Amino acid sequence: MASDVSYIAVDGRPLTAESEKMMEYVHTRSRELSAAEICERTRAAAAELEKVIASADERLVRLRPFAGKWHMADVVDHISQTQIRGAEELRHLLAGRRPPGPPVYEALKSGASDWAPWQTLVGGLHDANVEMIAILEGAARDEERRASGENSDAPTVLTLMVATTKMPNDELVAQLWFAELKWKEYALLQRLHLLDHRTQMRKLIAACVGGASGAAS
Prior knowledge:
Strand order of the largest sheet: 1-2
Order of helices and strands: HHHHHEEH
Oligomer: single chain
Number of strands: 2
Radius of gyration: 18 Å
Number of helices: 6
CATH superfamily: dinb family like domain
Number of domains: 1
Structural class: mainly alpha
Distance between the termini: 52 Å
CATH architecture: Up-down Bundle
CATH class: Mainly Alpha
Largest sheet: 2 strands, antiparallel
């Protein structure tokens, strides 16, 4: 791994290869990419996600094709809630402060996913993405000062990391662990989060469409 820090999952197990790979990605790429490059990659990930969400059939967004798992409205609400929290934490980091409050937990969402109009949820997600990109654009404009200040004294944020990993019995589960991330590492994690949920939404849309077609036949 690119870092000399040892991480342990919340269940006490060592990190799996998938989790180690995620940590290596945020550590290594945060040193290689400029603020402008991180901003553009995050902007592209947000656009990809919103394009997938726009293809969803509003009549199906609260179907649960996978028992015990979130429906599409849950996912969209979750991304909105985490993006706006993430944007606030980035704002603190870029100002040279450690963000206050607890970390952003993996299941964060509001009750609105069960009742709010779909377009309201989608609009909230778009607005949260706009806020995140605006903060990263500001960091890109201030690149020279930020780069010179990215040192061992730079503030970090306690972050709950989540990676889907294959267990010895081949079951796919989410492995969780805590890490202290600097602002570029944290920003790159937001990009990964958007891409992960883009893939999740694609699977949900396909499953819901397939289920609806089967029910109609």
